[in-house]
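FYI - complex with adenosine-5'-triphosphate, inputs then prediction.
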Amino acid sequence: MQFSKIRLTGFKSFVDPTELIISDGLTGVVGPNGCGKSNLLEALRWVMGENRPTAMRGGGMEDVIFAGAASRPARNFAEVMLTLDNSERLAPAGFNDADTLEVVRRITRDAGSAYKTNGKEARARDVQMLFADASTGAHSPALVRQGQISELINAKPKSRRRVLEEAAGISGLYQRRHEAELKLNGAESNLARLDDVIEQLD
Ligand code: ATP
């Protein structure tokens, strides 16, 4: 699947709706300091499910909403729409019913964030899995933020392994294993409780 378009509305410095076409091949983003190049990369991470404020250079998730400027009031919501070319039908089941796949994430002040895929409400987990399985998730090593190279050089082997796992597209499997383990633990404690109840009845 290829990214074909990104649209930002009220996201950080992109207060007015801004649409960028992502063509085949290499895309360069150039501009003076502070014009929003890194904000653009953060928008890409965010729409793919990034939830760590540290990765978004903010204190809380609502910090992605345009905070206002001398001549413009703050906004109440931020929205990013990512359009993917799905003409080769590479999207996983559940997302594979059209030639394009539109993923929208929107955050509203005091109401949290919500996702839509092709106009239908979607769960955060499903959107995160969709990109993690395609090796392009929010933590993808393909998105390199400032300072990340030196962090990687100084990182512990375990953190470096995580980067390789992301690149290999297996991080979604780890997430699923973790969820399965949580369910298993829940089932085991339910069984233990059941044993107690049976013992008391006997
Ligand atoms: P550099 O080349 O220096 O790294 P850049 O082009 O990557 O800069 P960004 O870091 O993406 O620029 O953008 C920084 C700008 O975004 C700053 O002017 C900052 O005030 C603005 N900004 C960040 N968050 C918000 C927000 N929530 N609301 C309004 N403006 C914001």
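Strands lie at 2-9, 18-21, 77-85, 100-108, 112-117, 120-122. Residues 173-202 form one domain.
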